[in-house]
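Email to the structure team, subject: G-protein coupled receptors family 1 profile domain-containing protein model.

Hi all, the expression group asked for a predicted structure before they design truncation constructs. Nothing fancy, just the tokens so they can compare against earlier work. One-line instruction: predict G-protein coupled receptors family 1 profile domain-containing protein, return tokens.
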Amino acid sequence: MNDSCVDCPTYTFTALNACVLVIYILLMIFIVGGNILTIIAIVKTEVLRTVANVYVTLLAFSDIIAGLALPLQMVYEFPEGRHELDENKSLCLGRHVVFFFSISLSLCSIVVIAFDRAVFIGFPYVYNRIATCKQAVIVACICMIIAVVDGTVTLYDNNWQPYESCTVETVLSWRYQLYGQVIPIMICFFLAGACYGYIFYIAKKHQKSIMSVQKNAKVANDMQIIKVLFLIYGIFLLCWMPVILYIILVRFFEIPVLVLNITLPIAVLNSGMNFIIYAVKNKDYRKAFKEILHLDCTLKRTAKVTPQKTNDIATATSDNKMN
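Reply from the structure team: attached below.
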């Protein structure tokens, strides 16, 4: 088979390939480490074992898969690995299936979390009645099925040819790029934006209607949570919009592969940012992380020697707030 390849492209390992490898390695450590820590915190900490955090666990799982899929992207930076992927259909398609499965699951999880928070804030009594862990697990399974279906479309709808470049724009059919990636991601943008817009509307409505000092303090805390949610959505847009534009424009214009090498890591970075926003921004998660990493040992020893003189009620109130 190799004898028939007269015009096979020749690849060399360049400084750009080295830079991309370093970026992917750092991303993998950051994404996998952070999201594993998130799942451990949820499993080991009773206060974090909530219905909402079932969806956060699903998101963390999808982000771990995205991080573990990065070595398949790294292989393409080596000349030998690139030749192997260009010549082996199973390896080439498998590379894209794993990546797009993780991305689909991550996007689905983000929308589910946005919808869950919208129902929680807009219809708290209904939410407390219908939101159960069993229901959350069912929703998580539906997300998994959607991700599997969307991710495996590449196996039977592709433009793979031997010795052709194993890249997104070459291997994936335009139908799949449009209907399986661009449109679903845009739908996720719209649904998540609608949910966060509704949350903001409800929060502003409550802020205007509540006048007492005590309740105003609660509204201020709620607004802090709303700001975090909008931060999630803003980073979601910033990370994904460049690669979406690339997928669309590359069909009509000659765009250097350098653009893909820049936009794809930015999109993958969203998997690590999810860990920071959903986890590190929450006081309960930070406390759980300190216990898991044994960073609170010094504080505990100090607490035994010097008793706390802080007002218990104020401390309890502070602990219930998200910073």
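Confidence is low (pLDDT under 50) at residues 302-323. The longest helix spans residues 213-249. Ping us if the truncation boundaries need rechecking.
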